[in-house]
Amino acid sequence: MNRRHWIITTAIVLAGLIGFQVGNQEAERLLPLSLERPLIGIASVDGEAYVRAVREAGGIPVILSTSSDAEAIDGYLERLDGLLMPGGLDIPPVEYGEEVHETVEPLEEDRYRFEKALGKAWIERSEKPLLGICLGSQWINVLQGGTLVQDIPSELGGNHRGANHQVTLEADSRLALIFGEREFEVNSNHHQAVGELGKNLRIVARSADGVVEATETTDADRFLIGVQWHPERMVPEDGRQKRLFKEFVRAAGRR
């Protein structure tokens, strides 16, 4: 049994010596057996939509246990080919030096510590692809020294929860190249967004009211993208969002 086969088998059957675990039976059923597909870690979530989107894009989705132990983090960095940081509750504002707004619903402590440790290590110690979705996009900005708008309705006005809206992409962005167009409709289920931009990032998409909807790294050779919408929920009907996951998995395969 070669090393990659051992990794995949361990992820599926034994939950991994470094803490891999499949979140539910549906996720396990969707895992393919091909040894050529890249391993995509999905941090802290057992949502079927993330698993299915990665699976259908050609990757092997592996839901990660929330261990911030240094050995576990090192193992993820070594063995995974790509990382997806998914949606969730709010990053504690202490991370970007602000008092807590009354609307903030902080992440559960174990998940907060895990995603902070893994995200920071992944960005700083690897060049492997990273896709952040909703909360994951916000993590990218905060881990790069940026801040968040803690509550869009009270700080900026408008509502971004439960209402689809248009986004406009920068013409020279990697996202525009992936999607093949600059304007389209996305779903929206967030009350926070990027405030001050983190280092080595650029804003590449906004909604009509000016809220930041996507960022990318300024490193043209790396796939590091955060989107504020939930493409995994749109994949079944929207070919554009399928292209995002396919390009993410393709980049992971090249690594």
Account of the protein in words:
There is one protein chain. This protein is α/β, with parallel strands linked by helices and 255 residues long. It has a single domain (3-254), classed as Rossmann fold (3-Layer(aba) Sandwich). Helix content is 36%, strand content 19%. Strand 10 and strand 11 (224-227) form a beta hairpin. The longest helix is centred in the middle third of the chain and has 17 residues, at 109-125. The two termini are 22 Å apart.
Short description:
The chain has 255 residues and is α/β, with parallel strands linked by helices.
N-end to C-end Cα span = 22 Å
Within the largest sheet, what's the order of strands?
A: 2-1-3-4-11-10-9-6-7
Number of helices: 10
Element order: H for helix, E for strand: HHEHEHEHEHEHEHEEEEEHH
Mean pLDDT: 88
Gross morphology: globular
Taking all Cα atoms into account, the compactness measure Rg is: 17 Å
Task: Examine the coordinates and then state which fold CATH places here, giving the name of the CATH topology.
Answer: Rossmann fold
CATH superfamily: Class I glutamine amidotransferase (GATase) domain
Number of strands: 11
Total number of domains: 1
Tell me, what is the CATH class? Alpha Beta
| Structural class computed from helices and strand pairing | alpha/beta
Unreliable stretches: 9-34
Taking the sheet with the most strands, its summary is: 9 strands, mixed
- Helix content bin: 25-40%
Q: From the 3D coordinates, which CATH architecture would you assign?
A: 3-Layer(aba) Sandwich
